[in-house]
Design brief:
With 133 residues, the chain is of the alpha/beta class. The chain is 41% helix and 19% strand. It contains 5 helices and 5 strands, in the order E-H-E-H-E-H-E-H-E-H.
């Protein structure tokens, strides 16, 4: 008998409604999904209700994904918040090194990313599953 997977709260942050929809549809029923269309909205949502995982674009209106990630890592409340980066930004070597040090996953939108995202998401859900049935 397999243990049922626990649903986790995921925040998807992207200013492209098509990406928000695509990612959200790919996650159900594994996750309870909320979305934010810009960095300020994401900041407010995380302050109000801490998700268990964030899928974060870097190029956002109002507050960038870089700023959010730095803020979250600097705060004891969100320092361990798992963050998956999904971006179309052409990263410098320094940016990539910094992101890999502070995010659990780094995916580029111009490459095939859907399967990698879903497999990493399933791993995260499985790790959060209760030890006993």
């Amino acid at each position: 008998m397999t243990t049922p997977l626990k649903t986790i709260k995921v925040l998807i942050v992207d200013d492209n409604p098509l990406v928000l929809d695509l990612v959200a549809r790919g996650m159900n029923p594994l996750c309870q999904v909320t979305t934010a269309a810009d960095g300020a909205e994401a900041r407010a949502q995380v302050a109000t209700s801490l998700p268990e995982l964030v899928i974060l674009d870097l190029l956002l209106p109002r507050v960038s994904g870089f700023e959010l990630l730095a803020e979250w890592r600097a705060s004891p409340r969100t320092a361990d918040l798992p963050v998956f980066i999904l971006t179309s930004k052409d990263l410098t070597r320094e940016e990539e090194i910094r992101l890999r040090a502070h995010a659990e996953l780094l995916l580029r939108k111009e490459q095939p990313w859907q399967q990698d995202l879903l497999s990493q998401l399933r791993r995260a859900v499985t790790q959060k599953a209760p030890e006993t049935a």
